[in-house]
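[User] At your convenience, examine this fold.
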Amino acid sequence: MLWFIQVHDLPGIPGFNADLRIGLPDMMLTYSPSSIFEKLVLFGPNGRTAYRAFLERVDSLFPLIYGLFLVMATTFGLASLFPNRPALQKLSLLTLGTSLFDYAENICFLAMLHSFPRELHNLEKIANVFTLVKWAFAAGSMLFVVILALGMLLPNRKLQASA
């Protein structure tokens, strides 16, 4: 998705490509609290407006879309591999952690944008924790999807509950 945005820009959000060149805070794995404020300064007024619009218009839908994909993929995999284990199938709900922490991170960034030029040190630290947890859930969720897909490809893939 970011490649498409870099090539074609975002309709209705002029100047977003400049923010991408500087680097979006929520696309970084980790960061120091002061680096968030530095990025917001580098964005300039137009860049901050573009970033706010991106968070409100695009990044408000993206976590929902990939969250639904992860839940559906893992639910399908678990239901296929463990058809008689409904409690085990509920593990697919863990993948929603990625979306939950992505939304929490976005709320922090919107609050920082709203309060700019005042720097919110504690909120920057909280946002960093949300970012780290989001990426941990994302990596775990993708690994979960891959393991389930591999399990479905193997012969005798259905693991029945023992009687």
In short: Helices lie at 2-8, 16-22, 33-57, 62-81, 86-89, 96-115, 121-153. Residues 52 and 110 are 7 Å apart (CA to CA).
